[in-house]
Amino acid sequence: MKAEEQLSLLRTQFPEEAEERRPREEQKGLPPLPEAEKGVVTRFAPNPDFVLHLGNARPALLSYVYAKEIYNGKMILRFEDTDPRIKTPLPEAYWAIKEDLKWLGIKWDEEYIQSMRMEIYYEQARELIKRGGAYIDLCNREEISKNRASRRACKHRLQSVEENLELFDRMISGFYGEGEAALRVKTDLNHPDPSVVDWIGMRIIDTSKHPHPLSGDRYVVWPTYNFAAGVDDHLLGVTHIIRGREHAQNTTKQMYLYTHMGWNYPYVVNVGRLKLEGFILSKSKIRTILAKYPGRFEGHADPRFGTLAGLRSRGILAETIRETILGLGVKPSDASISWDNLASLNRKKLDLGTRRLMMVIDPVKLYIEGFPEELLVVRIPYHPDNKSLGERELRIGVDKTGPYVYISRKDLEMVMNSTKQARLVELANVEITSTIRSDPPIAMAKYISRDLETARKRGMPIIQWVSHNPVKALLRDPVGLRYNIYRGFIESSAIALEDQVYQLLRIGFVKIVEKSEKKILLLKIHE
RNA sequence: GCCGCGGUAGUAUAGCCCGGACAAGUAUGCGGGCCUUUCGAGCCCGUGACCCGGGUUCAAAUCCCGGCCGCGGCACCA
User: Fold this and answer.
1) Assigned CATH topology for domain A352-527
2) ipTM
3) Which strands sit side by side in the sheet containing A519-526, from one edge to the other?
């Protein structure tokens, strides 16, 4: 029986039952967080060893939006800088990360730096030892991994609380060198993942060799990620952890810590990783490229990188990133953002407030025979739909041969290959009569009329032009890690105005990189 | 290899928990039309997807099992 038949049967037989049915409530935006009624405290916990990239924006934005915009709760920013040796923090990253977050519109209520909370971790470690949840292991790495593989405990696991406390103090005093002692959190010895088995909660880092940028060589015993994050999430009252999927196994580890301490583990949401079509996001890859090609990139903020700073220099709006990422939802599956999609969204946001200018690539001088004198100066609005952006005056250049404009060589070829007639935007309809192969190239045209209707009726292509006082323009179009370079003329309004972003007619949206009286360097944002 | 998590149009996402109005919604892309002094924007129409195989059920995108594929983890990194 088909569903509709069943339904009609139901309606005739049991009318009340049928009416009970109501459509499921439509959920706008993000799904609700479980157990949110008791309050929501989220955290974003980056490692300040590099700047943020688009992928980091996912947990950051979700943590912010849930905590502050949906549940009226609290958001914490916490720098996880407890590895001065391998992931040495970058002093400028603490600041740069905050800039990135502010740019995204993220506001946090509290801010912590883990390397400044060392005494707290020591105190919690002692408490954990007292509760029998941890021991100081004096085995070396090889012994530890061998024992893990065979799921065996070493003798140090059986030490008394007193012995462990004493050994711990000795660790802190600097008695042991790197790898000679570690605090291990007791777990199920038979856990299928060997890295979970009695995981390392604290280890020794020789800060005389690897000083921490904030605390120098003051501490030698450092908590691992799982210890520090686990302790902090509890102590800071975090209720919901939104983090990358790569942390899934860490929840398992931290759960043992929470059980020993009698704490409740926050609710965890694992989100998938993000890719941006055509961009490199990985910090290690970006670092490698920067090291390999010094001088070829403008650091981590280069518009060809998928860092937030890079996207910002590219001309992508924070709002575009926000909408894109929130649109992905909170799935644990990875997502690859298509450039078309991002560009389309960004374009719509830029369009109405952006002045439109004309630039010709590969200019060809086009003399117009019979050009009426009253058209030598024209006024053209900067935006056809947004008159508040004003208008500018464009003058037509005249030399001894007569009045002329520059058009792009590609357009000239296109027009020559069709009806030879074209409309110059907001100016006049012309017919090209001849082209002269010279350097620079020249073409001749005949004035037809100035009305738009004729152009429409005859189906003329409408092309942009530049004339009097052209400014040399160099347009960089990012393609992967390269730039395609286009040279041409842009109207002088680009110099006169203060705008940073323009739409170049029939070329796309661009951002000004540099400009002087004579020259302008542009970066293509997208079409 | 072991453990874990995923798989809905070209791309991304909604729906899955709680099976029925889902011949599957939305955005972008693509095709067509309208409008428009850009190849942009807007409006309209169209295109196109439930990984595969079994099972449960009157009914499966949704639940169960198996396979395939993708991703993550398997550090004294975060």
Assistant:
1) Ribosomal Protein L25; Chain P (2.40.240)
2) 0.90
3) A355-357, A501-504, A508-515, A519-526, A471-479, A482-490, A359-361
